[in-house]
Amino acid sequence: MPVNETSGRTEVRARIALDSQAGTSAPVETGTVIELEGVDIHYGQVHAVRGVSLPVARNQITAMIGPSGCGKSTVLRSINRMNDLIPGAKVSGKVTFHGKDIYAHGVDPIAVRRHIGMVFQKANPFPKSIFDNVAYGLRINGMKDNLADRVEQALRGAALWDEVKDNLKKSALALSGGQQQRLCIARAIAVEPEVLLMDEPCSALDPIATARIEELMNDLVRDYTIVIVTHNMQQAARVSDSTAFYSADVDEAGERFGFLVEFDDTQKLFSNPSDQRTEDYITGRFG
What we know:
Number of strands: 10
Strand content: 25-35%
Structural class: alpha/beta
Largest sheet: 6 strands, mixed
Radius of gyration: 19 Å
Order of helices and strands: HEEEHEEHEHHHHEHEHEEHH
CATH superfamily: P-loop containing nucleotide triphosphate hydrolases
């Protein structure tokens, strides 16, 4: 995939799509692709995440770490409106993509997800052939021209082509766990998103498969902006450029909620964190 041409075309399409839905003001031309400002997330009456603000830089890997129940996956899902699919979920504050509020009136969440793709914790290939798994999103998005070439390009982008090129008609369910996860990455990048969200993509994989996914992320970040949620602090330290540390607390009503403690350059956050709570977590004193 040519870095300049493809990512440039995708970025323009993303801006046009959101501009047509939510006003005509010019996008913000900075190194920040996504910005969260004072984001609160409710599930019904439960105020699950409170006051999250952070930028996501273009063509970098941003990691989100923290103990279970601190809201990092919930925040990740807010970035492409996946929380819309949960009954009673509500996101307030602002989440912008190239300066456009993705929660503004008239913005199509399906269009948002088209440009901000997602890979889930557990590989979830469809019970279809390898080819049809990758072609699925292309077909429903009307990207049917040169379908075989697009599928090959996505599989190459996910470092899977050489392993499956002679078995494209076989069931995706016959692949190993690591191959299935790379297939899901191929399916996500086939429709040429600009941003790729990854929610614990290696948690169910063995160390060898995990290393392959980490190598793949380092390759993909040349063409995509990546946000990853991980419980593995060593993984965050290895692959990310910036890291957000989340924690959880209980309010006066006894309600547990998640919040952002600190966001910084990964090397600095792990070597010289600004907040004692971050240091306590990364040194194993809690969490």
